[in-house]
């Protein structure tokens, strides 16, 4: 007999087209043109923010390393701390979204990331920078995943492949955008402006998720 895991929440009255294919996946309701446009814009914001989290530091690592007086090894750890936690967080997302939905996971991660960036702007030390980068890697994994899901909501089920391509392409655009805009940012506000930019983008993402949190997930134990 096939085992069916118990549900944590009552299942909404989905049609066959709206029902998620797997527990933890987003439903695919038939949004109107305005709803699809809203999901498209928020999906772009989330995907770009998730990519910029690491791209801004990677593009400016030599300048940051010089201003802080870091050795090459210490500078490399700023990137490594992000990547290590980011990869681990991607493994956690699969199970977490099955039980609670990826939206709750992203909201929690963004709030923690905001707190860490704010704390780092007050306590400006190398050790605090490492912790902030690690938390940023965790939050970026959830934001990127949610950005892809929101972009899929902007397209009908028959054209979801287009949404996936746009979301992945937007994530890849983060690196060239970082190289284009970061020189003027560093000239105007120093390296801390990069963290302020990340703080502002995270706030925008959190507000967007709360304002457009209509996507339902099937959650299981």
Uncertain residue ranges = 216-221
Radius of gyration: 19 Å
Record field, number of beta strands = 0
Distance between the termini: 19 Å
What does this structure look like?
This protein has 221 residues and is mainly alpha-helical. The chain has a domain at 50-141 and 174-211. It has helices spanning 33-59, 61-68, 72-100, 102-122, 126-153, 160-189, 192-211. Helix 1 packs across helix 6 (160-189) and helix 3 (72-100) packs antiparallel against helix 4 (102-122). It is globular. The protein starts with 32 loop residues before the first helix and ends in a 10-residue tail after the last helix. Mean pLDDT is 79; it is low at 216-221.
In a few lines, what is going on in this structure?
By secondary structure, this protein is mainly alpha-helical.
What labels describe this entry?
disordered C terminus; globular; 221 residues; mainly alpha
SSE layout:
Layout (H helix, E strand, L loop, with lengths): L32 H27 L1 H8 L3 H29 L1 H21 L3 H28 L6 H30 L2 H20 L10
Helix pairs in contact: 1-5, 1-6, 1-7, 2-3, 3-4, 3-5, 4-5, 4-7, 5-6
């Amino acid at each position: 007999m096939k085992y069916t895991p118990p549900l944590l929440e009552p299942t909404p009255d989905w049609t066959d087209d709206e029902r998620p294919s797997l527990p933890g996946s987003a439903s695919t309701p038939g949004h109107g043109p305005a709803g699809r446009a809203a999901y498209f814009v928020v999906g772009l914001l989330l995907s770009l923010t998730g990519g910029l989290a690491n791209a801004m530091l990677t593009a400016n690592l030599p300048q940051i390393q010089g201003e802080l007086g870091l050795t090459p090894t210490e500078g490399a750890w700023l990137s490594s701390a992000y990547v290590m936690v980011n990869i681990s967080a991607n493994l956690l997302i699969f199970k977490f979204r099955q039980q609670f939905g990826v939206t709750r996971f992203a909201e929690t991660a963004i709030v923690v990331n905001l707190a860490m960036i704010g704390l780092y702007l007050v306590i400006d030390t190398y050790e605090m920078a490492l912790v902030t980068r690690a938390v940023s890697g965790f939050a970026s994994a959830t934001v990127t995943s949610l950005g892809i899901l929101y972009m899929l909501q902007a397209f009908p089920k028959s054209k979801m492949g287009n949404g996936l391509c746009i979301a992945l392409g937007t994530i890849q655009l983060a690196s060239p955008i970082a190289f284009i805009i970061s020189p003027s940012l560093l000239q105007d506000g120093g390296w801390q402006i990069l963290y302020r930019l990340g703080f502002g983008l995270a706030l925008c993402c959190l507000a967007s998720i709360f304002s457009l949190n209509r996507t339902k997930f099937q959650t299981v134990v």
